[in-house]
Design goal:
By secondary structure, this protein is mainly beta. Helices cover 6% and strands 22% of the residues. It is built from two helices and 13 strands; from the N terminus they run E-E-E-E-E-H-E-E-E-E-E-E-E-E-H. It has a nine-stranded mixed β-sheet, with no helix packed on it. It is globular, with a radius of gyration of 18 Å.
Length: 205
């Protein structure tokens, strides 16, 4: 266990070790000061801590055995979150609309810049409210059971640098808003490339 507390900062690192058992409920005792929670590659069983964690900036449970639901309650309890990394975990649910506001003016999370949730049991659609997050630069959702289309509002702030929705069931066309910012990395299902292939490629018969 790696912990550091000082000047109002608390870091808890349990990732990449041989611990087993269940996640202790005492973790909730750190809720008012915890800023960095690293549980990646953890073999400990348990559920995703719900909080609230008013000071938490980084949540990393990638490649862990933790389960639970990425719920509106969990998101509302992370007002200062900067990075959510839950890829290859047992987290389920949908992408909460509470990550952003429908009017795209006053986001619920103003510092969030990264959502990594690939290879999870998340399902549903891409909520338009993601476009309200002013600093979102990376969205990784490959191999997630997403359906529907990529909403025009997704890159409303023009900040996306990387979008990975490869291996999902998303369909339709790519919104023009994706090209109005600084997008550099785009990973999408083949069905979403049809328009580009017709325009730029000559396929073999």
């Amino acid at each position: 266990m790696n912990t550091y507390t000082g000047s109002g900062t608390t870091v808890l690192g349990l990732g990449t070790n041989l611990l087993s058992g269940t996640l202790p409920t005492e973790l909730a005792l750190l809720k008012d000061e915890l800023r960095y929670l690293d549980l990646k590659h953890l073999k400990v069983e348990g559920t995703l801590p719900v909080g609230p964690f008013p000071e938490l900036q980084v949540l990393n449970v990638e490649h862990s055995r933790l389960s639970g639901i990425l719920s509106p309650t969990a998101v509302n309890g992370l007002p200062k979150i900067r990075s959510i990394r839950i890829s290859a975990s047992n987290i389920s649910g949908t992408l909460p609309t509470e990550l952003g506001r429908a009017d795209l003016q006053v986001p619920n999370v103003t510092e969030l810049h990264e959502i990594s949730a690939a290879f999870t049991a998340l399902s549903g659609t891409l909520p338009t409210q993601l476009g309200a997050i002013p600093k979102l630069t990376s969205l990784a959702l490959s191999k997630v059971r997403l359906s529907g289309t990529i909403p025009m509002e997704l890159n409303a702030k023009g900040m996306l640098v990387s979008l990975d929705v490869y291996g999902t069931e998303l369909s339709g066309t790519l919104p023009s808003s994706l090209w109005e910012g600084q997008l550099s990395y785009l990973y999408i299902p083949r069905r979403l490339t049809q328009m580009m292939r017709r325009q730029y490629c000559r396929e073999k018969l």
